[in-house]
Design goal:
The chain is mainly α. Helix content is 72%, strand content 4%. A three-stranded mixed beta sheet has the order 1-2-3, covered by helices on one side. InterPro entries: DUF389.
């Protein structure tokens, strides 16, 4: 009772002094610098773009020179020894790309200065070439030690390079933001390591230790122990005793959540969809899969992946049957529950990454309610499966494919985010990470490659939305110029699609000549030329009545 009534929070001045004393070491100060650097990158995108462009060109040139030097002399400054012929080819490709980047403005003045997007596209070609060479080398040396990791690494590099070359602007922004976020997370971990070192101590010298050494010391010190890990294993995996009862309960809850979600989609009810999210149990095997991957539990990983696959098939089949027998007429073009889940974009993957991190953290942290994990993850899993089943019941294969792509996006992103959180929060066994790091990386490589492949259609959709939004903004400016500053018309709506442009204005009088606007819009659509144009005028009638005479 005394402990509950006595406040154990020290005064603010004492807290501040303890914090300063705890982080006054080399590692934590580097962490503070990383946090500040990441914040600057996020807050000053224009300046960061110029710096990133310069650093990328210099790094690519340095890599090319080192590869050529190694191929000619047999001595390597950095990295592993490899086939000298392949290294020479890589080096030449790198130097050719750098030369083109530096001299393109002089060779083609009409092209303008090189932008960061151009540099990223060139780097994408380089990385893809290196990945392809690594794959070829691994296939030529198949059966030899190290061929499988080289094959996995080459696959990751090839997919990443293709993405960078195909979507340079999107990848440039993603790389900058991701680098800043990773730098800030690393910085916060270094600061937290300093605080924990003040409480528990550490054999690591912060003045001499590198950042990877500090991170590994953090991972070892975060180990939750076998007892706590055993408790989490019992909650995540359907094992004896009571294995069949656990599985039966899981299937019952999954069927009920899918039924709720399906009828919510048919009724176009967001509130009922939220109810399905609250009871959906799909988060359990997905988080369990991530936990098995980072701990090297092959049998548990296979069982969890199989349970997820069976759950997906069963959910889509159940939603299909319920929708086929439902008397509700479905309007796919106006049903918000359907339209919001059949065209996934990269934003959906970002949401899933955050959901996976939240769910994994709530799993290992006993201070966080377990229901938060279910809500955080199920929000992006059950509704797409219901939409897929409903779409299949109406033979709308395209919509069903989009909904399944959204589910697959969320599934892969959640697994990857949960793996990272499990490593940093101590659920992953340090012994497994230190003794079998290659095995853990090999099990994660297929998910990274799959995430890259999924990003292709997502980026196509995102690029289309961004392009359409830019065209709508440019069209709006053109319409404003066409109407003039003293116009009595007000723009109500502008729609840009494959059929052309539809402009809706409201006001009194006659609008200007429409052919003038059509010719002005030719600059907005330089490739297609002047678009088909539809003008909708909402008339406004003004009636004035003078005040009655008082005489």
């Amino acid at each position: 009772m005394d402990g509950a009534s006595r406040e154990a929070i020290p005064p603010f001045r004492e807290q501040a002094w303890e914090f300063v004393a705890s982080v006054s070491n080399g590692a934590s100060l580097r962490g503070l610098a990383l946090v500040l650097l990441g914040g600057v990158v996020l807050m000053l995108p224009d300046a960061t773009t110029s710096v990133a462009q310069f650093v990328s060109v210099v790094a690519l040139g340095a890599a090319g020179l080192m590869d050529v030097f190694y191929a000619l002399t047999g001595r390597r400054w950095l990295g592993r020894r490899s086939n000298r012929v392949l290294a020479f080819i890589r080096g030449l490709v790198s130097l050719v790309i750098v030369t083109l980047l530096i001299g393109i403005e002089q060779l083609f003045p009409e092209a303008g200065p090189v932008t960061l997007s151009g540099v990223i596209a060139a780097l994408g070609v380089y990385v893809a070439a290196r990945g392809l060479i690594a794959i070829i080398g691994a296939l030529l040396r198949r059966g030899q030690p190290g061929s499988l990791p080289r094959l996995a690494g080459g696959g990751v590099a090839l997919v990443g390079g293709v993405l960078a070359a195909g979507f340079p602007e999107t990848i440039a922004s993603a790389v900058l933001v991701s680098t800043a976020v990773v730098a800030m997370i690393t910085g916060f971990i270094l600061i937290a390591w300093g605080l924990r070192r003040a409480d528990r101590g550490s054999e690591l010298d912060p003045a001499q230790a590198s950042i990877p050494q500090v991170l590994w010391d953090w991972v070892r010190g975060s180990d939750i122990g076998d007892d706590a890990r055993g408790t989490q294993v019992e909650a995540l995996y359907f094992e004896n005793p009571g294995r069949h009862q656990k599985l039966g309960t899981w299937w019952v809850m999954l069927a009920l959540s899918v039924a709720i979600a399906t009828y919510a989609v048919l009724a176009d009810s967001t509130a009922v969809v939220i109810g399905a999210m609250l009871v959906a149990p799909l988060m359990t095997p997905i988080v369990a899969l991530a936990g098995a991957l980072v701990n090297g539990w092959a049998r548990r990983a296979l069982h969890s992946a199989g349970l997820v696959g069976a759950g997906v098939v069963g959910s889509v089949a159940l939603a299909y049957g319920l929708a086929a027998w439902s008397p509700v007429a479905i309007t796919f073009s106006t049903n918000s529950q359907i339209t919001s889940r059949v065209t996934p974009t990269t934003v959906d993957m970002l949401i899933a990454l955050a959901a996976g991190a939240a769910g994994a953290y709530a799993t290992v942290n006993t201070r966080v309610s377990s229901s938060i994990a279910g809500v955080a993850i199920a929000v992006a899993l059950v509704p797409p499966l219901a939409v897929a089943g409903v779409s299949l019941s109406e033979a709308r294969i395209g919509d069903a494919g989009g909904a399944l792509l959204l589910f697959l996006t969320n599934f892969v992103a959640i697994v990857l985010a949960a793996c990272a959180v499990f490593v940093l929060t101590g659920f992953a066994r340090p012994s497994a990470l230190s003794k079998e790091p290659r095995r853990v990386l090999l099990t994660l490589a297929p998910f990274v490659i799959l995430a890259g492949l999924i990003l292709l259609p997502l980026m196509f959709a995102s690029e289309g939305q961004l392009s359409r939004s830019a065209q709508e903004r440019s069209t709006e400016r053109a319409v404003q110029d066409w109407l003039g500053e003293d116009s009595g018309f007000v723009i109500q709506d502008i729609v840009v699609n494959t059929d052309g442009v539809r402009v809706t204005i409201e006001g009194a009088g006659d609008p200007p000549d429409l052919s003038v606007l059509q010719s002005d819009l030719a600059s907005v659509f330089p490739l297609a030329g002047a678009p088909a144009l539809q003008l909708v005028v909402i008339p406004v009638t003004v009636t004035e009545l003078p005040a009655p005479s008082t005489e």
